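USER:
Make up one protein:

ASSISTANT:
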Amino acid sequence: MVTSRLRSLFLLSAVVAFGCGSPPAEQPAPAPAGKSVDPSTAHAVSGRVIFKGKAPAREVIKMSSDPSCATGSGQKPLSDAVLVAADGALQNAFVYIKDGLDPAYTFAAPSAPVVLDQKGCFFVPRVMGLRVGQPLEMANTDPTFHNIHALPKQNREFNHGLAPGIPPMRHTFTTPEVMVRFKCDVHGWMAAHIGVMAHPFFAVTAADGTFSFSGVPPGTYTVDAWHEVFGTQTARVTVGAGESSPLSFSFGGT
């Protein structure tokens, strides 16, 4: 029964991804020439994101619907939606400059892709960022079938089937959007979130809650810290020439 179900899901997703004819990948318009950041006056913005109070318990995921997932993930695989360390450090918060950047600045998009893998029946990484015009490479390194279903609000929705062993697929976003949600329709617990940015001033918090992005020009900025479960916190920071401006964000109780 499990094998039959997975085969049916494979065929359904294959029709979604290929049978109806996927439109060509969006191609962003070239960025107009503009002002560049003076590196002699730019600096890094860094800080830490914490959760105060008792963190919610991590959910045990039931993977019995797919033996390939259950075998590779141990007896009690845990959700990675909320990762809080013993000292309150909050992992996987997306921190970025929301407002205040001079629109005259332009930033060339990197040509190297960022990679979203499906590994161990999880999306890896769970939270990430990339630039408008930068390729997103989507891979499946599991021995089971996945699909990758993007659910943006500002960009074009897409849904690709990824059978084991096939080459990675690529997609390019054309419009800034925080955040784009991804899911696998075959395995309902799988989720990821990607921040699509027009500039390079963003980061995802590490296991110790820290973040940093460099090359920020002098100015006063609104900086947001987004988390998929806890929402958004906002701070203001003034960047002086060559100075460091530590920031802190706190979710949860006081």
Notes: The two ends are 50 Å apart (CA to CA). Residues 27 and 100 are 27 Å apart (CA to CA). The first helix runs from residue 2 to 19. The mean pLDDT is 87.
